[in-house]
Amino acid sequence: MSRLDTRGMIFDIKRFAIHDGPGIRTTVFCKGCPLNCAWCHNPESIRSEREISFMPDRCIGCGHCFDVCPNEAHRMDGTDRIYDRDRCVVCGDCAAGCYAEALEVVGREVTVAEVIDEVERDRPFYETSGGGLTISGGEPTDQFEFTQALLAEAKARDIETCLDTSGLTAWERLRKLMPLVDLFLYDVKDTDAARHKRFTGVDNELILANLRRLDDSGATIILRCPMIPDINTDDGHLKALAELARSLSGLVEVNLLPYHKLGLSKTDRLGHQQPNGKRSMLTLQSPPDEQVDAWLARLDELGVANARRS
What we know:
Blueprint: E1 7-17, E2 25-30, E3 51-54, H1 64-68, E4 74-77, E5 80-83, H2 93-96, E6 103-106, E7 108-111, H3 112-120, H4 123-129, E8 132-136, H5 144-156, E9 160-165, H6 171-177, E10 183-187, H7 193-200, H8 205-216, E11 221-227, H9 235-246, E12 251-258, H10 262-270, H11 289-301, E13 307-309
Parallel strand pairs: 2-8, 8-9, 9-10, 10-11, 11-12, 12-13
Antiparallel strand pairs: 1-2, 1-7, 3-6, 4-5
């Protein structure tokens, strides 16, 4: 099988992306992630399989899903409209004919050839802006063969590549991908191991170890750091983050990603259980610009002049 035939499961391809690496980019979002962050803004990336997103407020009661569902996952119980996910086999028939778009299949299997054809459409923008292809997720290394093949095809076509990774993967995978990646967008969720485990499900030991291995191997790196009010915005985290940044010889910059609530509604639409106290996130608000500016100023005081908001 050629690498163009290699298949992967994705949930989106975003063209004209400007926050996923330098320049104008096409970002491919893979499904499947080993983390379960309380603040996740892309909960559709967590599970590796296809899912159904249901938005009850869009339902117009046309009854199409009742008629086509083979397992009666969609039905009425008195006056209540029911979607029983335990009966659903994610065939997608309900979403295919949902006029109001209340139902949507999240996740599709694609080949490298299909993805690279879409990436190629924006080549003129890459050449004028210094952009290219970004593979994100989820965790792209969970679909190692697909990610490797897509990166290799992009490099063969002289398209700049970024890999957005949580770092929670086998070092051997990152080592094999290094020659195919121009820039690593490396997530550092929290510098405190216990807090990292509480809010993501795992500690950060392997993540930080892989970051240092990449740096020692000559990788070019941008740190991407979610800033979650009342969780990881204390001065101790900023000091540890600054110390980490100063220790990396291949660091280009540090990106701060302020918390937003978009993931909460998507979690409900997908029928996911709220992970790691996620319901408590409902009381949090996106930090104001002046708070983000204060964090950036503090990092500058601590010797990190290349930090910015993303």
